[in-house]
Design a protein that fits this description.
It is a single chain. This protein has helices at about 5-30, 40-45, 55-65, 65-80, 90-110, 120-125, 125-160, 165-210, 215-220, 240-250, 255-265, 270-300, 320-330, 330-370, 375-400, 405-430, 435-450, 490-515, 540, 575-585, 590-595, and strands at about 470-475, 480-485. It is built from 21 helices and two strands. Helix 8 packs across helix 14. By secondary structure, it is mainly α. Strands 1-2 form a two-stranded antiparallel ribbon. The chain has two domains: about 5-430, Sodium/glucose cotransporter (Up-down Bundle); about 430-530, no CATH class.
């Protein structure tokens, strides 16, 4: 095995830079929030709520622009049967951020929540919060594992070093600076990583475009040269699948703790919205070099390159098209710089997911469900331990399981089908309760898993209209097998069924208990009769700061004296009376508390 010394040196320098920035951010902000009495655990989770537009815009963009995003976009543009028409991630995620900014960022930020699960526990109780934690955790862990797996493969293509070693080193660095500095370290390293991704990929593109083996990409977009045009097309029979996948990206990209961690760390609700719009623009800009690299791959006569006569798609290496183009169509020094960009993309997403998972566990499971009297120091230690545990789990999965992508596809579908409709209900629909939430959870899960998952060899037990069978080669075993392909948009239908089930069952339970059709003693979830039992989180339990401030009385954030953006903070006592009344009317749970 040949070791590329220049490549190793380039990666070592890059990793040391990231590590230095992460430790510097932790040191710079080690006393953040102390003067205002903000808990250290909350500072780790939401960075003292003083993340500005520059760092915030970068960190939110970097969370989406990961290894899967830049590799996957290039892969889909390159694949003959798909092309640009099926590279949905850039527009899907950009629209997801726009929708999140327009409708979700403001209510979440203005109510002062600390994690995405807070509103669920406030309205549906701690047990339901624990149930919703499961798909959220699975999504974050499998996402981290999938991108670490992609990193190992990418590094091995260009540098020819042991895949396992590269994955472990990358994961250890990300875990270390996340442990030390929490959100501050993650946010500041994201700025460096996004800059490296942008520069690294844009430096590579001109060299690859001018390589003699590459045809004019404007010609290969519409004409068949070495393979079918890279512009791609959507066949009529696949229209519903295309729409289903696009809705999954656009709406399923919202209910992730990695997104809300940034929203809730913004210095005001308006800033949270602006950050979302900036990140949407950033996602589109960062996808351009990936699209071009995919197009270059589709326009290359591989026989003229050092790669060999057989094209990557025929060697089942289409998912590696980005590192292959960097290595075989660019000079060595350029390909190593591009490689740094890819590893940057991976670390910028992996650290965010690990921090998000540990934040939700420490706050919503450990503190609010089991140890409400836990000290701040105890919660900080729980976070540190879980950062290490979840980071370790993701790394082990990246190394051991061959089906990590299949697991991620399924878990991201469950986030879309289960958590998104519940988030809609908890923020915008008055009167939903725990009975509806449990029913929605079961409906969504049953309908989605019933559709099967070919990647995991999970056969369907619900055959939706228009299903068909295809012979496909299994990516791990290489065996040809018959798989059921669902042409029906069953993921979006499952999501809608989950949402409608929540509303219908909630109102039915409310009617049955309040009308006396069912005796109050059978309200075993305490969801209708005694809304403020020990099970349902009351307002002050969720906001544990100095003198417990009720969420309804809470300002958007407690202004930090050290922050120059103090003017951007919103205090309810300075708002016009009409605005406060409008806000209270818009709160989905205000009716519950009025009855109290």
């Amino acid at each position: 095995m040949t070791i590329h010394v220049e490549g190793l040196v380039a990666i070592a320098i890059f990793y040391l830079l990231i590590l230095f920035v992460g430790i510097w951010a932790a040191w710079k902000n080690k006393h953040s929030g102390e003067a205002e009495g903000t808990d250290r655990s909350e500072t780790i989770m939401v960075g003292g709520r003083d993340i500005g537009l520059f760092v915030g815009g970068f960190t939110m963009t970097a969370t989406w622009v990961g290894g899967g995003y830049i590799n996957g976009t290039a892969e889909y543009v390159y694949l003959p049967d798909y092309g640009l028409a099926w590279a949905q991630a850039p527009f899907g995620y950009a629209l997801s951020l726009v929708v999140g900014g327009l409708f979700f960022a403001k209510p979440m930020r203005s109510r002062g929540y600390v994690t995405m699960l807070d509103p669920f526990q406030q309205l549906y109780g701690k047990r339901m919060g624990g149930l919703l934690f499961i798909p959220a955790l699975m999504g974050e862990i499998f996402w981290s594992a999938a991108i670490l797996s992609a990193l190992g493969a990418t590094l091995s293509v260009i540098v020819d070093i042991n895949i396992k070693m590269s994955v472990v080193i990358s994961a250890l660095i990300a875990i270390f600076y996340t442990l030390v500095g929490g959100l501050y370290s993650v946010a500041y390293t994201d700025v460096v990583q996004l800059f490296c991704i942008f520069v690294g990929l844009w430096i590579s593109v001109p060299f690859a475009l001018t390589n003699p083996a590459v045809s004019d990409i404007t010609v290969t977009a519409v004409k068949q040269v070495y393979q079918s045009p890279w512009r791609g097309s959507v066949h009529q029979s696949d229209t519903w699948v295309w729409i289903d996948n696009f809705c999954l990206l656009m709406l399923g990209g919202i209910p992730w703790q990695v997104y809300f961690q940034r929203v809730l760390s913004a210095s005001s609700a308006t800033y949270a919205q602006v950050l979302s719009f900036l990140a949407a623009f950033g996602c589109l800009v960062m996808a351009v070099p990936s699209v071009l690299i995919g197009a270059i791959g589709a326009s290359t006569d591989w026989n003229q390159t050092s790669y060999g006569a057989i094209a990557p798609k025929d060697k089942e290496q289409a998912d590696m098209i980005l590192p292959i183009v960097l290595q075989h169509l660019c000079p060595p020094f350029v390909s190593f710089f591009g490689l740094g960009a890819v590893s940057a993309a991976v670390m910028s997403s992996a650290d965010s997911s690990i921090l998000s998972a540990s934040s939700m566990f420490a706050r919503n499971i450990y503190q609010l469900a089991f140890r409400q009297s836990a000290s701040d120091r105890e919660i900080v230690w729980v976070m540190r331990i879980t950062i290490f545990v979840f980071g370790g789990l993701a790394t082990i999965m990246a190394l051991v399981t061959g089906t990590v992508y299949g697991l991620w596809y399924l878990s991201s579908d469950l986030v879309y089908v289960i958590i998104f409709p519940q988030l809609l209900s908890v923020l915008f629909i008055k009167g939903t309760n725990t009975y509806g939430s449990v029913a929605a959870y079961l409906f969504g899960m049953l309908l989605r898993i019933g559709g099967g998952e070919p990647y995991l060899r999970l056969p369907p037990f619900i055959y939706y209209p228009g299903w068909t069978t295809e012979q496909r080669m299994h990516p791990m075993t290489g065996e040809m097998e018959e798989v059921v392909i669902q042409k029906f948009p069953f993921k979006t239908v499952s999501m809608l069924a989950s949402f409608l089930g929540n509303v219908a069952v909630s109102y039915l339970a409310k009617y049955l208990f309040e009308s006396g059709k069912i005796s109050h003693k059978y309200d075993f979830l305490d969801a209708v009769v005694s809304k403020h039992s020990g099970e349902i989180m009351d307002k002050t339990t969720l906001v544990t700061r100095g003198n417990n401030i009720g969420l309804s009385e809470m300002s958007a954030v407690k202004p930090r004296l050290s922050v120059t953006l103090a003017a951007a903070f919103t205090r309810r006592d300075t708002l016009p009376k009409e605005t406060v009344e409008e806000e209270e009317e818009s709160s989905p749970d205000s009716s519950h508390h009025d009855e109290e």
